[in-house]
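Incident log, support desk, overnight shift.

02:14 A customer reports that sequence design results differ from what the structure should imply. Their input is reproduced verbatim below. On-call engineer (initials T.W.) acknowledged and began investigating.
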């Protein structure tokens, strides 16, 4: 049975769910928060130590300003209302991506990371304003700046996922089959599961089925 330490998820389909069910993309984003909480609980139940959630990409700035504002307000409210609970559950929060948001949100993100940094039950990596191509370019720049030998070990030191094991599983909901500039280096050997359900409809049973399926996959890594 395959060990499982890290699950990465592209939470796709909130907007489409909102339009279909509530005639509002924002309603879908709000509903998506409930799914996040369910998946966090199920991750802990399965004793998985790392969960990386793609919350906002560098490309998402192309969306309407009103929707972006709503998303960040939703994130602010989530952190304000839930960070104490996450801390009590011994959950660590780490932000990957460039923190160039409002002063208020930047401060809240920093405070949330600081408050939870010693926790060890589960580490949630929240990908905000994250783009893998930018991450890779910046890592190469740092490698060149430090004049270090170019090899895999040195390169990984400058990724934002430094000291985090690569995901064994990538899940993307929303019936879209692409990586969308997410963890391109880290997902090299991940098992990828594309889920038809939109993110707000994804539930614990769906998650458990994927975990069970992964654990029984024969992983060869180039061997026979």
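02:41 Re-run completed on a clean worker. Output:
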């Amino acid at each position: 049975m395959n060990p499982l330490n890290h699950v990465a998820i592209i939470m796709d389909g909130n907007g489409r769910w909102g339009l279909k069910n509530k005639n509002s993309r924002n309603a879908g984003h709000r509903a998506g928060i409930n799914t996040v909480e369910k998946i966090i609980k199920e991750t802990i139940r399965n004793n998985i130590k790392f969960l990386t959630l793609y919350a906002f990409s560098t490309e998402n700035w192309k969306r309407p300003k009103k929707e972006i504002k709503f998303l960040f307000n939703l994130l602010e409210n989530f952190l304000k209302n839930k960070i104490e609970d996450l801390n009590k559950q011994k959950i660590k929060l780490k932000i990957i991506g460039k923190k160039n948001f409002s002063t208020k949100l930047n401060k809240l993100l920093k405070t949330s990371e600081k408050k939870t940094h010693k926790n060890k039950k589960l580490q949630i990596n929240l990908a905000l304003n994250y783009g893998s191509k930018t991450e890779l370019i910046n890592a190469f720049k740092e490698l060149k700046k430090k004049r270090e030998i170019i090899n895999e070990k040195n390169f990984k030191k400058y990724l934002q996922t430094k000291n985090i094991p690569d995901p064994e599983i990538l899940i993307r909901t929303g019936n879209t089959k692409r990586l969308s500039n997410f963890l391109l280096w880290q997902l090299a050997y991940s098992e990828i599961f594309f889920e038809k359900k939109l993110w707000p409809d994804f539930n614990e049973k769906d998650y458990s089925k994927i975990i069970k399926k992964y654990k029984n996959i024969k992983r060869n890594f180039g061997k026979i």
